[in-house]
Amino acid sequence: MIFLALLAAILAAGLALATIVLTHGRARDDRGGARADLVRYCNLSAVSALLCGAMNLFEAAGGGTTAAAAGNATNVVAVGLLWAGARRLNSRSAIGAISVGAGGILMFGLTFLVPLDDATLVKTAGLAVLALLGAFEMARRPLADLAGARLMTWTLGLYGVYNVARLAVVAVAGLDPLLGRGLVSAETTAAVSAVAIALVSLAAVRIGRHLDDAPIPGTREHDRGSLRSEAAALLADAATAQVTVIRVPELDLIRTAHSSERAETMMRQLLDAANDAIPRAATGIPARDTVVAVAPVASDRDAQDAAVRRAFASRMPGIGYDDVPDLAFQHVVITEVGELSHLLESRRLRPR
């Protein structure tokens, strides 16, 4: 029975990976956008779940402690990546794949240091915490407004509650219920995992479709589309258009010294300042900590930059900030929309 349940989990993980890759794995202009982040984290999570099922099957066939350790580690990583991906899509402080991987390595090593049953309890506690954290993050906006987010919230929440219930049973009745048959047994847990993987896959596809087809105003994906549309309109009337990339170099220091909310407020003020100071500009925040304006080519870029600085400085007292951070400008003249799409890849918008 345990072999059938584990095979179901492996099949579900494989189908989840294939579904996400086939639905959202194509190369697009927005490789660095929210959809790409979703695909990256969900694909890594599906791969981890696939490896987890394979290692658990190997362990059941007599693979020993090494197989158990690998299964525990990849199980924790699979759930942790969903939480990390949700934080990424909500533009919160990153708990990236490397951090989650470090947690998996810790779980791998711990399995060799403590009895196997104790390691299983630690893993179960980790799964409960990570799943509930993922559910809470999915319930936060703007991610909560996307189609499929509610399904993933409920799936992660119920999966977390199930693991809490397993821990509660152990606290009351010991390890015997986990080793035998019943609602908290290894067979049932594998079956629950298979169902959870399938539901998470469905939710990820729905979220990705929403990001593709109807990005929410204010998100990076929406701003990318708006900037490209404006560039196309400008280039229909003129041979060239000007892209102005504006950053606050000390924004990370402001975020550390004050808060993420203060940094986000400052970026919104910079967005408004650029919109007011650059004539006929379409503005947006298509990448982290970066404002981009698309407008007709300016005759005097220095004067335009100075106007943005003045407009930005005039807004600082309104948000209770005494100092005026410096701004960094980058100007690019484009002749076709494809050049803007190339620039908008998040890798190319990162500060150098």
Short structural summary:
The chain is built from 13 helices and 4 strands. With 352 residues, the protein is α+β, with helices and mostly antiparallel strands. It is elongated and about 75 Å long.
List its salient traits.
352 residues; alpha+beta; 4-stranded antiparallel beta sheet; 13 helices; 70% helix; 7% strand; elongated; disordered N terminus
Structure, explained:
The chain is an alpha+beta fold and 352 residues long. The protein is built from 13 helices and 4 strands. A 4-stranded antiparallel sheet has the order 2-3-1-4, with helices on both faces. The longest helix has 56 residues, at 34-89. The termini are far apart.
How many helices?
Answer: 13
Largest sheet: 4 strands, antiparallel
How would you classify the helix and strand content by structural class? alpha+beta
Query: Could you tell me the mean pLDDT?
Result: 77
